[in-house]
Amino acid sequence: MDISYIINELGEEREQYFNAVAPPIIQTSNFAFKKVDDLRRLFEDEYNGYLYSRGLNPTVDILRKKLAALDGAEDCLVFNSGASAIFASVLANVKSGDHIVSVAKPYTWAQKLFNIILPRFGVSTTYIDGTQIENFERAILPNTKIIYLESPNSWSYALQDLKAVAELAKAQGIITICDNSYCTPLYQKPVCMGIDIALQSATKYIGGHSDVVAGVLSGSHEMMAKIFHSEYLTAGNGITPFNAWLLIRGLRTLPVRLQKVTENTKAVVAYLKTHPKVEAVLFPHDESFPQYHLARQQMMGACGLLSFYLKVEKIDEIERFCERLQHILMAVSWGGYESLIIPGCASVPKNAYDASKKTHRMLRLYVGQEEADYIIQDLAQALNNT
Ligand SMILES: *Cc1c(COP(=O)(O)O)cnc(C)c1O
Question: What percentage of residues in the chain have a pLDDT greater than 90?
């Protein structure tokens, strides 16, 4: 399917709403029926139509059609956060006594789920270095039900060979879930590589304007129906019609925004690599990246997020660098129009800072859509005065 068709037309039925170019926000909690039979049909299976907006909603459905098509998936569900998408995809596929194999250090709130919540219900998790396929083979137990992936990881950018992991899991009847927030479906399509569920935080590039929190799951119609009937309806964590409308609007410009961010990121990586205060730059599509070949093979693009290590001794120098930035904001998240920075040392108690630990000297930069020179000059004035 043509990407322009998906973004501009798919799912939109303008003649049904006065030929308005922008779709309406169907801001309603419930839907009325003329026939008892029609009501009965939805009581039997709410995934078949509009009954109540905790389930399906027409504005949300326009978005679902577009996102599923972008992922090359049969179906998708949209949640009120990426974290609730993670929660639903995992919970729907485990029961007491089951086991999960997860890549090391997935997204923080996936870790909380695996470490704190699931053990209370008898579900255990083994973390592995996902860069080697043999580690998956070794960690799989007879009761393993899920392999949880995040490729690239949003801090270390560690990748997994998605085709190889999917093949291994399929042969043993294990469900694979892959967090694809870094790439978006434009730069990587896990479902097309055999992964059962592709997951992304739509808060990042899909929303794209730092004004909405949302999450997406894509996969087979059967899997999405299963999640809809259990976790989605029970937790009531679907996206609201207004936020769905914001994401439809975000999608209109996703290709151009990614293009701009990709160009900017290239320029920023090249600049940082030459600066004497920068020890190294970590970016999947840079030749120095340890898994560069795999990154080129399975990701159609890489952009926005990168990390670099400052060549400094004292924590004060890192703090001074961050606080000197004039335009790049110090804030969590990424994928919006604005460049952002987070120092690794912010997650270390000040007296535990250790310059010999690279992660303590690490900075994660999100390159936004400002002009590349504007971002580089801001980095330069802060680096040169650190
Ligand atoms: C932000 C993020 C999430 C969680 O998404 P929210 O929308 O913040 O709940 C999950 N995975 C990754 C890699 C993320 O960056």
Answer: 99
